[in-house]
Design brief:
It holds the Pfam family HTH_38. With about 45 residues, the protein is an all-alpha fold. The chain has helices spanning about 5-20, 20-30, 35-44.
């Protein structure tokens, strides 16, 4: 699978502010929840 893009990172930031779970973010971005979790641990 390809890397998370800058625009996806911005969306993840927005989704976090809205209180979405990793599962909900993954569904919206067509990514696995573990990918979201990994990105959050890298950049927070």
């Amino acid at each position: 699978m390809s890397s998370i893009t800058y625009s996806e990172r911005i969306k993840i930031e927005t989704f976090c502010e809205l209180g979405l779970s990793n599962i909900q973010m993954g569904v919206r971005l067509n990514r696995s929840p573990s990918t979201i979790s990994y990105e959050l641990s890298r950049f927070t």
